[in-house]
Amino acid sequence: MDLELGGKSVIVTGGASNIGRAITLGFAREGANITVAELDAEQGEKVAEEARKLGAADIQVVKTDITDMAQVKNMVDAAVGKFGGVDVLVNNVGWDDLMFFMQTTPDFWEKIIKINFIGMLNCTYTVLEHMVKNGGAIVSVSSDASRQGEPREAVYGAMKAGVNSFMKTIAKENGRYGIRCNVVCPGVTIPDMDEEVAEGSMWADRNAMFTEDQFAKIAATLPLKKLGRPQDLANAILFLSSNAVAGHVTGQVLSVSGGYSMVG
Ligand SMILES: NC(=O)c1ccc[n+]([C@@H]2O[C@H](COP(=O)([O-])OP(=O)(O)OC[C@H]3O[C@@H](n4cnc5c(N)ncnc54)[C@H](O)[C@@H]3O)[C@@H](O)[C@H]2O)c1
After folding, report:
1. Ligand 1 pocket, Cβ-based, cut-off 6 angstroms
2. Is 156 a catalytic residue?
3. Against a cut of 0.85, is the pTM above it?
């Protein structure tokens, strides 16, 4: 099936690690022009090298902290300058450190709010200004923690729920410009190898999140009895980014989590 993403200008935030890396490589296989917006530019360049081999039309890594509006404007200018516009924005950056709410502090809340919500606002706001001219697709990576309460992810889950709601409104406001906006919600999604993650990745030390025993227990609770892999998310995001196959899909929140969350 031709997703007709070849030659499109695509921005992937956090596109150097785990899920973001699989998204970048997925668009590369489709022959897209890719801008990776990354804090970890060194890891970004490694992924860019792989992307070129897989068939990316072109790829650039722009060192960006998405929580800083000036840096986001610079990154979007680089995408528009090099590739003539932005057809697809994937808001993939996210971060959490698992703690019960009463173990967290106001400084921690602020960090979670900035990375998971404000950064997504900065990128969406800046890209929309260009996208309204020719239409496009925005896909934001949320979390199943947004769809049901998740112990040790109180503020993160709340911010991801904000992402879901925000994207629905943006879908309603911008459908008239041919812009579709959707959300994917991963469950626990783990990298295969250490080389797949950035220095600041949530998975840089994967056993700091869960022990191997806990991974096995989580998998056993899922209807599909297995944890997610980055490619599972990349597949759903490629689908939602493609006007050829998802041209009538907007304002939707799709869980890609082995059945962890089932919302009617
Ligand atoms: N992996 C999971 O189990 C899981 C589960 C639910 C939701 N998610 C969501 O999926 C998305 C990707 O998760 P992942 O596991 O691939 O994460 P990851 O930590 O492996 O990668 C995140 C990437 O974002 C980059 N980044 C972080 N802060 C940034 C900033 N301010 N500006 C620019 N780049 C920044 C990091 O350098 C890294 O490359 C996130 O939104 C996350 O919340 C992941």
Report:
1. 13-14, 16-20, 37-40, 64-67, 92-95, 115, 119, 141, 143, 186, 188-189, 197-198, 200-203
2. yes
3. yes
Ligand 1: distance of its center to the CA of 5 in Å?
23
- Residue 176 Cα to ligand 1 middle (Å): 31
Q: Identify the structural domains of the chain with CATH numbers, from first to last.
A: 9-256 (3.40.50.720)
Residues of the chain with pLDDT under 50: none
Distance 15 CA to ligand 1 centre (A): 8
What are 185-227's pLDDT values in tens digits? 999 999 988 888 999 998 988 788 889 999 999 999 999 999 9
CA 10 to chain centre: 12
Q: Which of 125, 156, 177, 260 is catalytic?
A: 156
Nearest to 34 by CA among 43, 42, 142, 20: 20
d(C-alpha 51, C-alpha 29), whole Å:
8
Nearest-atom index, ligand 1, CA of 20: 16
Residue 87 to residues 69, 167, 221: CA-CA distances in angstroms?
20, 17, 38
